[in-house]
């Protein structure tokens, strides 16, 4: 993993960071944990390869009012034990981002974000494709929704994907502290739709959704976007089957004998479906040449 570089934080930048963190203070049940928020944020954006608590606590100077003998323990307690309202913080964050980026021409982008891991205890971790490394590896995978507009872009929401290997192990879920409401079997597409509902419910404007083939090949995902009145441009694979003309269907009827029909079937003489691979092979091609920067 490449090292993260952050320019030196001068007093003006630190003051702006503290002011930003102060906008989230009411998401914390107690005042003292809220004071650790800017310290933790400062550690995350300060130059350094490792962002875990131990190295972070060593490189961030503490303000006089938070001077403690063991900064590492204090930061660990802030991250893992301090009571705070996650969704309230997310909602406030999106409101702050909307002040800068909200635009009628806004676009929602659905994507996967992966986090390489060494151990087996991080929530949702398993051996799977890791986009951050470009190969199969031990990692967590989260579904994320981003916002792009003429004014800029920003992440909006993110939720960890829980594989079946986790959902079938109650003891493992208990040890990791996974809340009961989050112990649901959801596909990545279902998670993406729930995230979209949440961010759009807060008033962010936009009618177009972009996603790669990981979401585009899912019929339920595409149908979910259409049901919400959203336009979409999604990636697909050449194995996807499509109709070039509107097909005619025969709805299932009550069975009079034998196995009952559950799905509609194509009517006699109706156009047949074709794979995108086949469709592409018979579509006229036009050669296009471009150079980097075009």
Automatic annotation (TrEMBL):
Residues 253-294 are annotated as: Disordered. It comes from the Bacteria. This is Transposase IS701-like DDE domain-containing protein. Pfam families: DDE_5. Coiled coil: none annotated. Residues 34-294 form the Transposase IS701-like DDE domain. InterPro entries: IS701-like, IS701-like_DDE_dom, RNaseH-like_sf.
